[in-house]
């Protein structure tokens, strides 16, 4: 992840998250204290060669299989690095989801091709309090 390409985008992500979560500027984060878990799915736009005749509405091969199965996660190992993307997400959501990123104690991250039409790429983020997990 190129620093120049992401400069200022963390504020955009924070603004979108505030809007999605219904949190106004200056309001406290959802989880102001305590340990937090975070799950991030980074869905990257698939390359043109993964579609029949370049038609982005007709996936083929492994992308087609992933889009037709219950598992929509077709993992990839290429740039940008997953850990760098994750750090960006955690920094952007500090002050929105949690007060400080030291609260994040459990992480689950995966980078995949987007196998859901319209195959444009997206990021899904879930988080919650570790104190509220059911233990048995």
TrEMBL record:
It comes from the Eukaryota. Pfam families: RusA. InterPro entries: Endonuclease_RusA-like (IPR008822), RusA-like_sf (IPR036614). One of its GO terms (biological process) is DNA recombination. One of its GO terms (molecular function) is magnesium ion binding. This is Uncharacterized protein. The lineage of its organism: Eukaryota, Sar, Stramenopiles, Ochrophyta, Bacillariophyta.
């Amino acid at each position: 992840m190129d620093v120049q390409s992401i400069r200022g985008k963390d504020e955009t992500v924070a603004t979108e998250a505030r809007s999605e979560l219904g949190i106004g500027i200056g309001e406290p984060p959802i989880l102001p204290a305590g340990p937090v878990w975070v799950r991030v799915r980074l869905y990257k736009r698939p390359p043109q060669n993964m579609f029949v005749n370049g038609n982005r509405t007709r996936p083929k091969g492994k992308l087609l299989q992933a889009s037709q199965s219950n598992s929509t996660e077709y993992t990839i190992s290429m740039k940008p690095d997953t850990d760098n993307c994750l750090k960006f997400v955690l920094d952007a959501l500090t002050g929105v989801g949690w007060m400080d990123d030291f609260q994040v104690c459990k992480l689950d991250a995966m980078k995949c091709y987007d196998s859901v039409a319209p195959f444009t790429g997206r990021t899904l983020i879930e988080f919650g309090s570790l104190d509220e997990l059911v233990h048995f």
